[in-house]
Every structure is written in C-alpha cells, then in structure tokens.
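Dear colleague,

Thank you for sharing your sequence with our group. We've completed the structure prediction you requested, and as agreed, I am returning the results in plain text so they can be pasted directly into your records. Please verify that the sequence below matches your submission; if there's any discrepancy, let me know and we will rerun it promptly.
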Amino acid sequence: MIRRLLAALPLVATLGALLWALQANPLAAPFVERSAGDLALTLEQQVHRAATADWIEAALTQAVAARDADRATMLIGLAQDLGRDVDTTAATAMIAAETDTLSVAVDCAVCMADTSACSSLSHLTFCAVPFEMTVLGDLNALRRAAFAFAVGQEVDEVDAGLALVGLGATGAVLVSGGSSVTVKAGATLLRLARRIGSITPELTRFIRVPIRWARVDDFVLGTARIEDVTDGAALARMGALAADLGRVRAATSTAEALRLARFVDTPADATRLARVAEAAGPRTTRTFAVLGKSRVFRATLRVSRAATGTLILIWLTAAQIAVILGTRIGSLAVRSVMRAI
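Please find the predicted structure tokens below.
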C-alpha cells in the first residue's frame, strides 16, 4: 500500500501544481506583448535569416525597374549592414539620376503645388511637409473642401476631417504646452499619406468623419468650436489614431512613416506599428520590407511564462498517467501469460 502511494506521489504533486496554475486561467490569454528590447532583437534575427543575398538582389532589381530611389537606398544599406555580397551598380546609377539637383528642383516646385504629384517620398518630405505641418496646411485643406462644397463638386471629407484633427491638435498644443504635437504630426501624415495613395481602403473608411459644412467658415474665423463642426467622439478616435502615427514618425522619420502607413488597416494596426517603430527605430521600414506585415505583427507577441508552465504541467500529467496506465496494463498482461503457462 505504501509503495503504491509513493509511486503515485509524483502524479499527485503534478496534479496539484496544475490545478494551482489553472486557477489563474493562463490559457485564456496565452500571449503577451514582448518588451521593446526583446522585440528589437527578435525582429533583427528574423531579418538576418530572411534577407539573403539573392533576396536583396531580386528586391533591388524591382526597385531599379520602378525607379524607386528610396527603396533602393534602403536595400543597399541593408546589404551593407548584413554583409551581403550584392551588385549595386545599377541601383547606384538609378539613385544618382533620380536625385539629380536640377531634377529635384523641378520636382519640388510641382510637389509643393500638388502633393499627389511628388515623385518620391524624399521630395515630399523636403518640399511639401514643412508647409503641411503648419496650421496653414490644415487651413488650405479646409479651404479646398469648402470651395468644393460651395460649387457643388465632390468634397474630400477624409482630407477635411484630418485637417480638423490637425487644427484641433494645434489649439491643444497651445493649451497643453506641446503634449499634442504628436497628434498634429500624425494627422498631417495621414492626410499626406492618403493624397499619395499610401492609405488602405479599410483605414479610409475609419477616418471619415461627418462635417457640418455650414459651420466650417465660422470655425476657421474662430467664432465656432471644433465640436460645432464635427462629431467629437469620431474626432477623438481619429486623434488616437493620429497619435500612433505621430509616434511612428518620431521613432523613424517623416518619409518612413508615410511609407509605413500602408500597413495600417485598423486602429489596432496603428498601435502595433507604433510599438514596432519604437523598438526597431530607423530599421522599421526595412523590417517590414523583408518580413511583411503579418510576420512583423506576430513577432510583437510571445507565449507568456504562465501559459508555457501550464502547458508543461499538462504534458507532465498526461505522461505520468500514461506511464501508470502502461505499467498496470503491462502487469496485467504478464500475470495473464503466467497463469496461462
């Protein structure tokens, strides 16, 4: 009897530990967010494995064919950082041609007049962003929308809504002493990203807010509040999204944030992107280019220690039960054979 109790003691101890672990229900939410340091290390390891010399050469060929100097520059830097032996002759020549001083000057004049005509993100950042980041950029967007409404043309409500967020954040900056700068920057980034086609249709539906056009002029003149022009709750949701995009810009750059905006379909995506950007910093764009959105966002989570421990206890319990049952069945089989003999 004592021998049987001693044999069952490991199983009893494991079952007790398992029941104690299950009280916290760790398997209900088995995944937790990685720390910034852990996330940066995990992403860099995955990029190092995925970005082979062949992959970089193929990506460079595509960038040269598309005359995408920004992407080609990023890929050349990636090859140098990882020590990949890649032929960059064609890419370097293309970059030199695209960044010719005269060409940049002509493109800049066109870009300032119409951001949708900017030839590259670098040109957009250099030429249009300084103006668009000011209150004048937001007022100009509202002016375009009000004029379109007055003459019966189609109104770009998304552009106007983002301008309202920017103006609201500008006013909040004056009151808060600067804490709303991130929201202002994010709203402008969203507006510019949409005009260059870097915003997904899913996100476009989310950032559309209702606007009372009859009160827009009063708001611009300062005789109406922003709540009189649009829905406050919708504006707050857009403000939170803009804040996340502002975090991305602060961790990377304006050009990179504009390129990364296409990976955002929902507000949750914007929050994840901000976490990745704050962990990876200037390497965020190349991380997405190599791994893709799904792999990058999956890397932000890991199985919690509590869930891992619980799964191990479940496995140990099952293994011990299997050993006990196997021993009993084996003993019964041996006895049956002995009796038959």
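Summary note from our side: Residues 41 and 68 are 29 Å apart (CA to CA).

Kind regards,
the structure core
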